[in-house]
Amino acid sequence: MDFDYTPEQEKLRKDYRTRLEAVMTPERRAAVGNLAEGGAAIAECRRALGEAGLLGVAWPVEYGGGGLSALEQYIFAEEARRVNAPLPMITLNTVGPTLIQYGTEEQKTRFLPAILKGIVDFAIGYSEPGAGSDLASLRTTAVRDGDEFVINGSKMFTSGAEFADYIWLAARTDPNAKKHKGITLFIVPTDAPGFSWKPLHTMPGVSTYYTFYDDVRVPESAVVLGENQGWTLVTNQLNLERAALGNLGALEPLFNKTLKWASTTPLDDGMVIDQPWVQQALARVEAQVAAYRLLNLRVNTTMSSGALGMGEASAAKVFGTELTQQVARELLDVVGQAGVRKGSAAPLKGELESAYRLAVINTFGGGANELQRDIIAMAGLGMPRAPRDMRASASEKGSSNR
């Protein structure tokens, strides 16, 4: 079986590369650097990408997108990662497509063009203290008051809240319903009275956030799909997020840069790459990256047919986030102390150790990997659900980070 891209897809890749390099000038790349959060530099880059028509390449044409397949979007994402383009992954790959499928015409008209212009960003408001992996146990409430809802409660691990324009918020609207049935999804503006946030610093050096809702009022038009229909949206968005978290883009550039460094850095008896253990380490990494590339191709081909299941999305997320840790660790062994130095004069500019720390926190994004293994077993392999006490022990290890 031929796993290479078709000539048409290779042509598309080259076109993406040319257009992305035109937008992501050396000055813009330097400005965003290794930033993982928002800010003026990232916002300016996203607007420039939007103006160039480089956001939403796989969205339907009728909503302003490029109408391409999920696989072609993956090709684009690979090229975007190589030039360090700060794509709004959560907004573009998960919230936008969910709105396309379930949003009202008013919501589509209001939000979709703004997302494609790179001027609107969302953060995900799901996890709470005590409701992370067991997300359906959330306690944030939304009570109807005429044609408005009044929201009270708090969330944690709301990544990007400081820079977001809106929170994609799950709240309980029917306390008497079964826990999965009484949840509603709201679009909450971050400038709404009563909304506030507090940073929660993490090992990768980036912040996630506590968010607080104190009598926050939103109109009925802020409800997506319908009252008490939120769980459908939560699972749809998380499925897309898990697949996106498995993106290969970060691994190949790290490998190629390390290979170049090892090939050009001298030792007393030759180059670093001349050492057998270095050759073995780089060979292992290359094989792992190649295998993961095939998994990504399979997942995105399946997405293109509209048949991506929860088990496949979770498998891509688990394998990708854990492989990124493993690869970064192995490449750090090759580079040694030089791999943890930062600054423009440092080899690899600290990218390896930054990638390793970020990969650790990504194992929690979209649902902790312990929970994802449950999903793989149940949805992917048809195995029985784990007993509640066993799943609770996994929940203690981490939460959804969203």
In short:
The chain is α+β, with helices and mostly antiparallel strands and 402 residues long. The protein has 13 helices and ten strands. The chain is 48% helix and 14% strand.
Keywords:
402 residues; alpha+beta; Butyryl-Coa Dehydrogenase, subunit A, domain 1; Butyryl-CoA Dehydrogenase, subunit A, domain 2; Butyryl-CoA Dehydrogenase, subunit A, domain 3; 3 domains; 4-stranded mixed beta sheet; 4-stranded antiparallel beta sheet; 13 helices; 10 strands; 14% strand; globular; disordered C terminus; AcylCoA_DH/oxidase_NM_dom_sf; flavoprotein; FAD
Characterise the protein shown here.
This protein has 402 residues and is of the alpha+beta class. Helices cover 48% and strands 14% of the residues. Helix 1 (7-23) packs across helix 4 (70-82) and helix 4 (70-82) runs antiparallel to helix 9 (276-304). The protein is globular. The two termini are 39 Å apart. The model is unreliable at 392-401 (pLDDT under 50).
CATH class of the largest domain: Mainly Alpha
| Strand arrangement, major sheet | 1-4-5-8
Dominant shape: globular
Radius of gyration: 22 Å
Q: Which H/E pattern describes the elements?
A: HHHHHHEEEEEEEEHHEEHHHHH
- Output the CATH topology of the largest domain: Butyryl-CoA Dehydrogenase, subunit A, domain 3
Domain count: 3
Q: Tell me about the biggest sheet?
A: 4 strands, mixed
- The helicity comes to 40-55%
Keywords: FAD, Flavoprotein, Oxidoreductase
Organism: Mycobacterium simiae (Mycobacterium habana)
Family: Belongs to the acyl-CoA dehydrogenase family.
Catalytic activity: a 2,3-saturated acyl-CoA + A = a 2,3-dehydroacyl-CoA + AH2
